[in-house]
Amino acid sequence: MRPQEMVERALELSRSDDCVVIADETSTANLRFAGNTLTTNGVARSARLTVISIAGSGVGVVSRAAVRDEQIADVVEAADAAARDAAPAEDARELAAGDGGGAGWDDPVEPTTIEVFRGFAPALGDAFAAAEAGGRRLYGFAEHTLTTTFLGSSRGLRLRHDQPTGRLELNAKSPDMTRSAWTGVATRDFSDVDVAALDARLDQRLAWAKNRVELPAGRYETLLPPTAVADLLIYMYWSAGARDAADGRSVFSKPGGGTRIGESLSGTPLRLYSDPAAPGIECAPFVVAHASSREESVFDNGLPVGRTEWISDGRLAALRQTRHSAELTGQPFTPGVDNLVMEGPSGGRSLDDMIASTRRGLLLTCLWYIREVDPQTLLLTGLTRDGVYLVEDGEVVGEVNNFRFNESPVDLLGRLTEVGGSVHTLPREWSDYFTRTVMPPIRVPDFNMSTVSQAS
Amino acid sequence: MAGQSFDIVRDGVLVGYQLDRRMALLKGFGRSNGCAFADSPGHMPIQRMANVSLQPAPDGPSVEELISGVERGIYIMGDKSWSIDMQRYNFQFTGQRFYRIRDGRLDGQLRDVAYQATTTDFWRSMEAVGGPETYVLGGAFNCGKGQPGQVAPVSHGCPAALFRGVRVLNTVQEGGN
């Protein structure tokens, strides 16, 4: 049975007052490589059926993988039973209404295949040859995933979204394995990945690392590249639920009650926003919620998602809302969106130009193992990885030891002294979960390197 | 590969590794001890941590007896934030509750505590291990490894233990406030 037919069948079988059914079909292809040679490749497909039954204001959700045709009734019965047994859901709201088959609803699912690497794989082979000749070794992983989501409801919704997600992570190491550099890119189809350019950048960084400089822990002027900014701001975005803020649980809670919406977070007129139509990072233009949480509600499924400014001119403008939390906070309904863009004032410089104008500071490659230390300040800890470089008088003069940092992205927005030009980037730490970002490099005058890490 | 019980550290000495069959063969360790699994049928098994625990001392002290041997220190209950570098040297953890120890007794609750160390230095600083009644089985449901990412539960048992000279941070000061 096709996923569209599974949705229709599940809706027919449900005996609840209302029902929402989500069928996700996912295909993935990957290449792995090490020491300048391909090591493994793979393709896989998976499917998940989620039935959300609503009885009065009670809701029951059952989500199962690889459901066969004859098992649909079991899933629906389980969801209906759970809804009957459920206590009233505080987020219960009228479901969105639709009028049947939306764009592409009946079209077949077109899975990704290993063919997605048709142009990329030969270029990668050329990069292996160049790396071998240049005395460096390339390691990494390329993955392309295509998820097609069908969302139907007893109120006539029939919505479809095809989401391609691709990423390349590329490491270069010196033959003695003492020097390492990293880069990564997010892509929708690998046609825009310039492996030779990425390899050239890694070659430059390995050359920088030939001179080793040991520095102690402390606060340093630091240039954070777009990937590091993305990792810090994604965590901030995940922590920007209006409900938590209203309940006094987050960095966006106002002392004494309420949220910090309207408050200035940065003296720099920067903007943080999401937009399902943003070029190159397009994502679902409607809510897809497989389960309710403090940041999303199954009752909001299918509602349109549009461009949302979270920070405007340095001011907190919105938090992630369900309709329920929007009522509680008296704010507009601004559901989460699966991409994130930060922009500073127009005319922001490139990272290379920012390096050239640095008298003395650190240049990071990326961040690693980021974890929350304190939700009230959003203090995060984590580590530098694959290259920290010392910049003096506009030139990189050597590679520095790694550090553990302790910083809050909200504080950083208030302390940064420069925002460069925004570019598409792959957040290294969170790339399993969030890849669609456009971020600038930033300059922080006093980034807190809390301690030295011996990791190299 | 059948699971089995094996020592990584015995009497304070490193005596073993987590192994899959490939690494056992490559490094001359004889046979695998079964430390490889996949999180679903859709993924390849990868070498990863099995359930790793610190054994209690058979006749070891109670928590109160451990505290009684501390003139000035902190009693940490539970775990919270955890982060460690890619070669597992530098870590920083927090906890769920913290109490000040003065002259062998608890003396009020503390806040804004984190602790940092290098792994091997930290374990070398362990002075005492509690008895069986202090042993707790904990763990996590979301241990992430590999590319493509695999997420699996892990269990870790541990008695109360006393460490000397660990670097403690004030997280408010770390945040520059």
Structural account:
The complex is a heterodimer of chains A (456) and B (177). The model of chain A has no long low-confidence stretch (mean pLDDT 97). Chain A has nine helices and 21 strands. In chain A, α1 crosses α2 (72-85) and α3 (120-134) runs parallel beside α4 (195-208). Chain A is α+β, with helices and mostly antiparallel strands and 456 residues long. By secondary structure, chain B is mostly beta strands. Chain B is built from four helices and 15 strands. Chain B has helices spanning 21-26, 63-68, 119-124, 171-174; strands spanning 9-10, 13-14, 36-37, 46-47, 72-77, 82-84, 90-93, 97-102, 105-110, 113-118, 126-129, 136-145, 150-158, 161-163, 167-170. The interface between A and B is medium-sized, with 38 and 30 residues.
Question: Count of helices of chain A?
Answer: 9
Radius of gyration of chain B, in angstroms, nearest whole number: 18 Å
Overall pLDDT of chain A: 97
Oligomer: heterodimer
Stretches of chain A where pLDDT falls below 50 for ≥5 residues? none
Largest interface: A-B, 38 and 30 residues
- Element pattern of chain B in H and E: EEHEEHEEEEEEHEEEEEH
Helix/sheet category of chain A: alpha+beta
The total tally of domains of chain A equals: 2
Unreliable runs of chain B = none
Helix content of chain A: 10-25%
How many E strands of chain A? 21
Task: Kindly report how far apart the N and C termini of chain B lie.
Answer: 52 Å
Mean pLDDT of chain B: 94
Residue fraction in strands of chain B: 35-45%
The number of helical elements of chain B comes to: 4
Coarse structural class of chain B: mainly beta
Q: Which descriptor suits the 3D outline of chain A?
A: globular
